[in-house]
Amino acid sequence: MAHSSVSGTSSPLVPTTAVRRLLATVVANPFGTAVCLGLAYLAWTLGLRIVDWAFVNATWVASDRAGCNPDGACWAFIVNRLPQFAFGFYPEAERWRAWIVLIAPPLLLLLAMAPEFPGRRKVLVGGFCLYPVASFILLSGGVLGLAPVPSEKWGGLLLTMVVGIGAFVFSFPVAILLALGRTSKLPAIRLIATGFIEFWRGMPLIAILFMSVIMLPLFLPPGVEFPRLTLAMTGITLYSAAYLAEVARGGLQSVGRGQSEAANALGFGFWAMQGYIIMPQALRAVLPGIVNSAISLLKDTTYVMVVGLFDLLNIVTAALSDPAWLGLATEGYVFVGLVFWSLCFGLSQVSARMERDSERAQLRAPNGGRKAS
Amino acid sequence: MTANASIAVRSLSKWYGSWRALRDVSLDIDGGTCTVLCGPSGSGKSTLLRCLNGLEEWQEGDVAIGGVAVGYKARELRRLRRDVGMVFQSFNLFPHLSVLDNVTLAPRIVRRRVRRETEEHAMQLLERVGVAQHAAKLPSALSGGQQQRVAIARALAMRPSVLLFDEPTSALDPESVKEVLDVMIDLARSGTTMVVVTHEMGFARRVAGRVVFMDKGSIVETGEPGEFFDCPCTDRAKAFLGNITRN
Question: Which of B213, B168, B163 is nearest to B188 (CA)?
């Protein structure tokens, strides 16, 4: 910086203030400096190796394992099978339908990060609520002139999206009803809701999935058959609802008694009061918990492999045993990990954005009105 | 229901467990008058007020507003509560809604009025209570006195035939108390049926048609404010007035 030499009192060799401050810190804190240097060395060597493996020595185009550089990642395996990882066995001629279903959630997430415009919230909420039903209709076809595609053919990321978002969206209203039931004044309703929550929350998801695929059909009337996907989704939905219900109950309890008294005194009925006054406050209060549940549910969808559904993780695992691409487990799992991480990171970014927005709304002109009267 | 309904309370009794909150209370309030309920804490005055719109359940006796019995059936109670406005000690505004939406929500949802109509009415009311310039803000951005005046506007938006006030100024600083009392005095002079639980004796003197003094769940003494304050008949009322004027 120029000013130290211009000032005249110091010689041109005196280090700049930033460097001087750094030196002072190093001298004052030798242990911290040692730790810092050690960590930097570790990061450097590890980082170099990772970069070497993942980029420098990596092979992106090859027709089989033999064509890959053995010192680097064999991304060609992922690239070759990308359509399968994305769509499973969805017929190629109908892929455009799968594309729409696959692209819609990231687009909605981007929209959630977009600057505010009138009706943004409605588009977002409507989009996510319609998504499961719309994607089911679009994917299975049989209506509107679309060729029918059985759900056994859905797979990969497509299946992960449909199951994850579908189970979450369907479990939301169930969770709200359960939370209301659990806080109800009527003992019978409270007992049923509490029992339901404890039952589904207390069981391992794998057991629920097995039961829903094996036992649920026993209770259905003969001749009625549901695809395995529907049965598994029912199980995951109820499991997720039990968890979400407890989150929602926390929110309900955070809303003061005065709110329901004020609503009652104005003549609101129970449902109008919940819909317009209590729930908006309760759900906003527990937004981080809701997003937390969504993230954990998205990752839990990988358990559908135990009932033979090919979600992203399972289809990659299956591809690992392809004789042409043997021994590429690292590449496969790193890829799955990155895809899941991106989805979850997107979700948590959206949640942070929503929290910031509501905080800003609370802080808007905090003292603006105090003086005037 | 008529514009300014009368209220009739007949031998009302209420227990919280084994503790008796109200003892055989009977009270008639004429339409268009302002009645002040006062008494030491725990005397049952707030409980009595909350029975009038069914926020509290009672065990014996009857309450009727404008000739309509206040019952336990949810649908009838809801219908009645539309016509009975209430203002709370802690305001109880809806914190997630703007001041304007706080006032318009109930007319829109409960009375199914269209938005434009409710907003026009709401702005008139906010103007009347002196907070129209804050209509777009959230309640948390307002002072206590302003919030309480919004709460009064919210109650008025339903065009109630009776207004109940549950210690409306107890949570306010002295400056705000005056703002709120001015609004209430204005309301009382316009001939609204009002029942007010308050310790503001100045307010009672100026606009109350009648003061009801309660102690231990019973009505001990009722009278016009002038008589009651200047020469209370009972020893209990004398002691109470002595206590609150000394502070």
Answer: B163
